[in-house]
Amino acid sequence: MLTQLALLRHGRAAGQSSDADLTPEGEAQIRALGRRLVAEGFVVAAAFSSPYRRAERTASMLLAALVSAARPTTLRELAPDGEAGAALDALVATQLPPGRVLVVGHMPLLGEMAMRLTGKEISFSPGTLVEIELAPGAASGRFVRRLVPEELAS
């Protein structure tokens, strides 16, 4: 089984500071995503989050919705001003398990990580999930899908 990164931009937030939390709309985005992923049988093998509150809250909410035993590990390299290569190196250094690995972060970092892995420009509005299947060695990947909040509204 290959490793698949599930890159998730945090839900809509009440600001840009490190302690800004999700807005009610942001929480609704993550609840809707959780319902969709539960219906699909989505399972997380490991989870990582930026140290910013809005990302940590997004990761916790989604993992709770999935009834996942995984707990998010905070990686400072996933902060908004992080560098894509350093963030990917930090993830690989954790010895990523096979299966889905949830990575919750921010723009522009997530877009840069996706570009580095797939060679494609992928946009991430708040609450957007992009799945990328990693090639052995994690130097490249294959775009699998993109879920945006507007597709999940119920």
Overview of the molecule:
This protein is of the alpha/beta class. It has one domain (3-152): Rossmann fold (3-Layer(aba) Sandwich), CATH 3.40.50.1240. Helices cover 35% and strands 23% of the residues. Strands 3-2-4-1-5-6 form a six-stranded mixed sheet. A hairpin with a 6-residue loop joins strand 5 (129-134) and strand 6. The model has no long low-confidence stretch (mean pLDDT 94).
What's the layout of helices and strands?
Elements: E1 3-9, H1 24-40, E2 44-49, H2 53-65, E3 72-74, H3 84-93, E4 99-105, H4 109-118, E5 129-134, E6 141-147, H5 149-152
Parallel strand pairs: 1-4, 2-3, 2-4
Antiparallel strand pairs: 1-5, 5-6
Helix pairs in contact: 1-2, 3-4
Give a quick rundown of the structure.
By secondary structure, this protein is α/β, with parallel strands linked by helices.
Features:
154 residues; alpha/beta; 6-stranded mixed β-sheet; 5 helices; globular
CATH T-level fold name: Rossmann fold
The assigned structural class equals alpha/beta
- Could you list the spans in which at least 5 consecutive residues all have pLDDT below 50? none
Distance between the termini: 33 Å
